[in-house]
Amino acid sequence: MIRHRRRAASLLPRPVSAAAAVLCLIAALGGCSGGKRSGGASPTANAEKKPNIVFVLTDDLSWNLVAHMPQVRQMQQGGLTFDNFFVADSLCCTSRATIFTGRYPHNTGVRTNFPPDGGYGVFKARGGEQTAFAPELQKAGYSTALFGKYLNGYQPGDTQGGSKPYVPPGWNEWYVTGNGYPEYDYNLNENGRLVRYGHAPQDYLTDVLSTKATGFVQRAAASRQPFYMQVATFAPHGPFVPAPRHAAAFGTLRAPRTPSFNETDVRDKPSWLRPHPRLRTPGLRAIDRGFRDRVRMVQAVDEMIAKLRQTLAAQNLDRDTYLVFGSDNGFHMGEHRLAGGKMTAFDTDIRVPVVVTGPGIRPGRRTSALTQNTDLAPTFLDLAGAPVPPAADGRSLVPFLRDTEPPDWRDVALVEHVKPLPSPEDPDRQDSAPGAPPTYNALRLRDGLYVEYQSGEREYYDLVHDPDQLVNQAARLTPDRQRQLSALLYALTHCAGATCTSASRTR
């Protein structure tokens, strides 16, 4: 039964065993060394008081929006910014499955947003809910809560054979919807009770999540139990609906005209991109409108962050709480002649902002280390003093919070993307239309980007001299360098657990 709220209330998976056979081919890049996978003992593992963790996860938020978010900029001034944080795939469900488990898409089995090769159903069938970090946090004594978005395909009213709407294992409190993209007219599974929200101004989803999240912080403070809270907004994902109070703001703002914007010459690009014509006035105007609405949308997110920070301070929890801000993937708007979307291997899509504040973090720090969303689950577990599962492909970021980069840290990040099948239910269907990138695997190195498409085409960009990824130099790679990069990519797309750590080091 749906209860109406009262207005006054608040590339396909591959066998893992193949990795060992190619690791030594990476010797020319300096690979094949071993090393510890974790960041060492948790700084709080032996402490009597465990830290709280608040994770604000946005949807499709690109780096160029941060300039318009004063609270996030304040977090940067008071905390640590990861300047080279990359997602394992620039697609919602695939990235979120990786965040929950610390595993690459070829190990989660979630390659797209919907079956047969992705979505919530595949995540659940592959044991993702049991291997996610939330049950382990509960075992470590944490109260856990999720607000907003879970995984594509999750239906808040589905009982999963039970007597009431299903709540996955590991969560003490659950306020989740399935289709919050329009920000209005949605159902929220509130701890197993389905509540309907309409189209009134107070039903704006980001604001509802803000109110409910601050309420959880207040309850958690009273209980004195450490907590993990994830607030996963649908903003700024399309259809780009800002809160009414922000609808007229930023009236003259335009999308940034970076060197790659409406790229002049794409003759060196792969075949899926070459046919794209230069954007003309109507398309440019649409991009500018979309960018303005995205900036407007994140104002409510920024206000939510302010409210959370104020509530933590009022409850005397700010000194005991790690606040993490991030996004599931980036977004392009006009770069390389592409209208709004994601899924490519360009930095616009795979590089996302991640900022952390909390105890022991020196203010105003930045790190250029290559970090990934595979590292988030190990980090949360490490902070909680819980063991990091051997199956995790990522590593704890706790050393970085303590102003230290492990000497054996990765110097290459893996990106793997399977082109989704067209689906009318897919909120990202506009990005998987003809002209979107085909299936590919990619390496993001410190100084380069290497892409192998299923078609056999390749891209390589020298990021030292070409940070905007304008000149594809794949044809200029020496045969030895080509073999080295292919071997490294093969090893990473076949890795699991500790072998991912070994394969990601080329020194």
TrEMBL record:
The conversion to 3-oxoalanine (also known as C-formylglycine, FGly), of a serine or cysteine residue in prokaryotes and of a cysteine residue in eukaryotes, is critical for catalytic activity. One of its GO terms (biological process) is glycosaminoglycan metabolic process. One of its GO terms (molecular function) is N-acetylglucosamine-6-sulfatase activity. The modification 3-oxoalanine (Cys) is found at C92. Residues 51-386 form the Sulfatase N-terminal domain. Pfam families: Sulfatase (PF00884). SUPFAM superfamilies: Alkaline phosphatase-like. Residues 419-441 are annotated as: Disordered. This is Sulfatase. It comes from Actinomadura rubrisoli.
